[in-house]
Amino acid sequence: MNAIKNRYEFAFFFDVENGNPNGDPDAGNMPRVDVESNLGIVTDVCLKRKIRNYVEIVKAGQSKYNILVKNDDSLNSKFTKAYVEKGLSTGEKGKNKNNVAIARDYMCENFFDVRTFGFVMNTGDDPCGIVRGPVQLNFARSVEPIFPQEITITRMAITKDEDMKTKDNEMGKKSFVPYALYRGEGYISALLAEKTGFDEEDLDLLFEALNNMFEHDHSAARGKMCLRKLIIFKHESKLGNAPSNKLFDMIKVNKIGNSVARNYADYAISVEGEVPDGVEIFEK
Predict the structure, then answer these.
(1) Contact 128, 182 (CB under 8 A)
(2) Dihedral of CA 154/157/163/165: which sign?
(3) Nearest to residue 110, comparing CAs of 159, 39, 62?
(4) Would you say 103 and 82 are in contact if contact means Cβ atoms under 8 Å apart?
(5) How far apart are CA 191 and CA 199, in angstroms?
């Protein structure tokens, strides 16, 4: 496994216009918000889903880039397949540390999201162990407080036969944010990459997916969403040459003017301060 040799951190900015970037099932699918600050939230799970979907599109049919977490076969059946592919005994006969390690390596080699984000694969009759992924994402948060809106919409199609005689249409609700700029942050560990086999090709694909994750995810519900900027910090060493918080603090977002922000041009994003020794900053 030719894993990456450098530690990385990265920050990315994306915006939404007249859409719901991440609905909250506990709040009627309204856009997620921090109840104290009213800052918008997009979960790491939501962002990983978009990365997975992009990789599956561009790497379709390539075994190294299979996606584990998707709605096709059950997870347990995929774990059993790993045992079968490696010629291991399944069920109670195959449950031992050596087989689990072999199956875990198989999952890392064949599933992009496992060797990237990690996964707990201890369920079922044929466990594949636990993988701690080298790439981790924070929740993305809006730069300013958001004020979600809910509007009533009309649908001309009637759902039930018995309602056809009494209704001309049906009413529904749509939740959206008029405009918001979000900031997300991520970490890439070279030490954990050595354990999963996350290599330079995977790294390039990850950054490619971040740049394009909204381009194949458009829908009426999510409105217009765009990745606006991806800033990457590359360390010379595996352990890193500066604390991640110090690097992230160098990224400044300033509001232009006093009007309510309604597009990306209403903000200026810059990297300020002295770059620590052993760290390279670039956009990709």
Answers:
(1) no
(2) positive
(3) 62
(4) yes
(5) 12
Cα separation, 10 vs 104, whole angstroms: 28
Q: Do 183 and 7 form a contact (C-beta atoms < 8 A)?
A: no
Top mean pLDDT of 88-92, 156-160, 207-211 is at: 207-211
User: Which two structure tokens, joined as six digits, stand for 162?
Assistant: 């018995």
Report which DSSP code applies to 3.
Answer: B
CA quadruple 17, 145, 149, 137: dihedral positive or negative? positive
pLDDT at 204: 98
Containing domain of residue 128, as a range? 8-154+174-283
- Per-residue pLDDT tens digits for 245-271: 999 999 999 999 999 999 999 999 999
Sequence-ordered list of residues with C-beta below 8 angstroms from that of 162, at least 6 positions apart, any chain: none
Count: domains in the chain: 1
What pLDDT, in 10s, does the model give residues 165-203? 888 888 888 999 999 999 999 999 999 999 999 999 999
Would residue 1 count as lying in a domain? no
Q: Are 263 and 181 in contact (CB under 8 A)?
A: no
Return the percentage of the chain with pLDDT > 90, whole number: 87
Residue 165 lies in a domain: no
